[in-house]
Amino acid sequence: MKYYQDETFKNVDFSTEKEIVEFDNCSFQNCQFTGMKLLNFNFIECEFHTCDFSAANLSSCSLNDCNFEACKLLGLRFDLCNPFLFQVNFKDCQLDFSSFYQCKMKKTNFENCSLKEVDFTEADLEGSNFHESLLSGAVFERSNIVKSNFTTAQNFNINPEINNIKAAHFSKENLSGLLLNYGIMIK
User: Fold this and answer.
1) Superfamily assignment of 95-187 in CATH?
2) What is the 3-state secondary structure (H, E, C) of the chain?
3) pLDDT tens digit at each of 187 positions of the chain
4) According to CATH, where is 2.160.20.80 located in the chain?
5) Fewer C-beta neighbours within 10 Å, C or N terminus of the chain?
6) CB–CB of 40/21 below 8 Å?
7) Which CATH code fits 1-76+87-92?
């Protein structure tokens, strides 16, 4: 297994990497992980800026305290990641068609992200923040969004009867996202 600590990688194409790698406190800028099998890779306290992970396989990949900014993360199965110490945050990222099914990710930040068709079924998102994020077609079923912030989120459809929404924050402008399942006309 390769091991890197406190290193910065710029414009590196990791998609041909075959050996298992552990990265500790590393920074990645404009790197490619597209379609890569990240089986058993470990990312601990890493920062990713303008990286592309689209269609990567995250089976048993560890993402422990990792931050993604302006990254392309299309169609990723975060639910296949190693759940031990799983912690991620996203800013200005594209996460469309990804899955967080049953992920435990309290206090996760999704700031100004595209989350179209993302699966949050049975995810524990307590205290998470969806600031300025677009949630068209995102699925919330039996999800824990207690104390989560949706005040500036857009285009969500959350059924209060099948999700735990106690003390979640919504604005008057986006309150209709809680009522869509009732067929109520709001003007």
Assistant:
1) E3 ubiquitin-protein ligase SopA (2.160.20.80)
2) CEEEECCEEECCECCCCCCCEEEECCEEECCECCCCECCCCEEECCEEECCECCCCECCCCEEECEEEECCECCCCEHHHCCCCCCCEEEECCECCCCECCCCECCCCEEECCECCCCECCCCECCCCECCCCECCCCECCCCECCCCECCCCECCCCCCCCCECCCCECCHHHHHHHCHHHCCCCC
3) 899 999 999 999 998 888 889 999 999 999 999 999 999 999 999 999 999 999 999 999 999 999 999 999 999 999 999 999 999 999 999 999 999 999 999 999 999 999 999 999 999 999 999 999 999 999 999 999 999 999 999 999 999 999 999 999 999 888 777 766 667 666 6
4) 1-76+87-92, 95-187
5) C
6) no
7) 2.160.20.80
Largest CA distance in the chain: 59
Q: How far apart are CA 145 and CA 147, in angstroms?
A: 6
* Pairing verdict, β 27-29 and 8-10: parallel
